[in-house]
Amino acid sequence: MSYVAAVEHLQSLGQELAHTAPRRKFDLATMRVLAAALGDPQKQFPAVLIAGTNGKGSTAATLASICAAAGLRTALYTSPHLIRVTERIRIAEALEGACGAWLLDIPEEDFARLYFRVDETAQRLVASGELPYAPSFFETLTALAFLYFAERNVGIAILEVGLGGRLDATNIVDPILSIITDIALDHQEYLGETIAQIAREKAGIMRARGCVVTLPQDSEANNSIAEAAAVLETRVVNAVKYLPADCFAADFDEQIPSAPLRANHYEITLGDERLRVRSPLAGTHQQRNLALAIAAAVELRNSSSYTIANTATACNNNSYNITNAAIAAGIANTAWPGRLEFLPPDVLLDVAHNPAGAWALRAAIASLPAERPRTLIFSCLRDKDVSEMARILYPMFDASGGRPHDHIVFTLIDNPRAARIDALLNSARALGIRAHAAHRADEALTLARRLTPDGGLIVATGSIYLVGAVREAVLER
């Protein structure tokens, strides 16, 4: 069967967050039965599991790049994708020396072959009564990824949790290390109405007498993580020492080539050495994600910080040989599109899909020259806090608020959970801000370029689906 047929069939599966999705999907029973029928591939490689509301993808991409720079055959599993579903499943082959490697998407032929293997297994399990219903979109993809990583005999897999943590499909692995990034209100319908409740769900990726890397954050989140760690006797590693001592002392004169935003260039102390951090990921909020990735790399190379359950499949039974040079090279080589990503000559993309992400984007926009005109392309999912994101972002593009050359363009995204255009327009009217509308992302980009004066900047944000569509349109042109 072809890759196209595999993707079409995958799209027909139930989406966990669709408004018609049954709550029964949020358990690990289906995933465990499916994985067992496939030979439990998740037990055939060491894994790092990363949960959080914001920053988990950036942290995962950075840590995977560090491991690849150390010469490890590294796997990376993330979600959702920007343009192609194969972006979620990547592997970097081991290279000689600590020179790094690009993580490459799973080939289409491997994706199709493994997809139909998973699907056929699932159908057999449903027919025999071993499963009450077919696995969902995310469960199927996760099983496919685990098969691919086991088949390729990876030395380490960096896995980003999809939703929550405790009941996420990725949580059937037995991680050698867990990471919890910043936690904020998001997906309350599924995870809880408070930061404390959401943090408890995220803390479900920790293991008894294991190790978790995190940073101080909201007091409710700190308390929930600490309480869960105490019960499990999990060692908590605070990554704060890997933050720049003074963010204003960072070398902000070095800008991303051709980009309007300042790069994260600074130095920290790592062991007895000074480590030069040169990350292509812009935004001061990325310094927290970088600190988490660095702390995780240090723990991985510390032979006493964790144990590997199945030493027969471990690439190094004592510790991973991750040098400071590999950490620096991995950070510098990190590729994580759509996160304050500048596409010349005039488009800035950022996946700010909740209020916390919107605040981070607003801080980045505030660092731009005030006189530079800018246009916002915005869309989001209807289950997001549109009114709160509107209050954070729209005033930065308000033509009637002292920025006469600025504009806002709303558009639809290709997702059944997409917010309606009229709802988006109403969110602007409620603030007394004028806005335009387009039916598709490519049309929104064309309109934004027509409205934006020469030398201006177009900022596309609000949903990863929008960012992916705009990115594809820009690259096609």
Q: Give a quick account of the main beta sheet: strands, pairing sense, barrel closure.
A: 8 strands, mixed
Overall pLDDT: 88
Counting DSSP E segments of at least 2 residues, the number of strands comes to 16
Here the CATH topology of the largest domain equals: UDP-N-acetylmuramoyl-L-alanine:D-glutamate ligase
* Residue runs with pLDDT of under 50 for 5 or more positions: 247-258, 310-316
Shape: globular
- Looking at CATH, the homologous superfamily of the largest domain is Mur-like, catalytic domain
Strand content: 5-15%
Quickly describe the structure.
This protein has 477 residues and is of the alpha/beta class.
Features:
single chain, Protein-Tyrosine Phosphatase, Chain A, 477 residues, alpha/beta, UDP-N-acetylmuramoyl-L-alanine:D-glutamate ligase, six-stranded mixed beta sheet
Can you walk me through this structure?
The chain is of the alpha/beta class. It folds into two domains: 3-332, 3-Layer(aba) Sandwich (UDP-N-acetylmuramoyl-L-alanine:D-glutamate ligase), CATH 3.40.1190.10; 341-476, Mur ligase, C-terminal domain (Protein-Tyrosine Phosphatase, Chain A). Helix content is 36%, strand content 15%. The protein has 15 helices and 16 strands. It has helices spanning 3-11, 29-37, 56-69, 108-127, 137-151, 188-191, 195-202, 219-232, 286-300, 324-332, 355-366, 386-393, 421-429, 441-451, 464-476; strands spanning 47-51, 74-77, 89-92, 104-105, 156-160, 177-180, 211-214, 235-238, 264-270, 273-279, 341-343, 347-350, 374-378, 407-411, 436-438, 457-461. Helix 3 packs across helix 9 (286-300), helix 4 (108-127) packs across helix 5 and helix 11 packs parallel to helix 12. The longest helix has 20 residues, at 108-127.
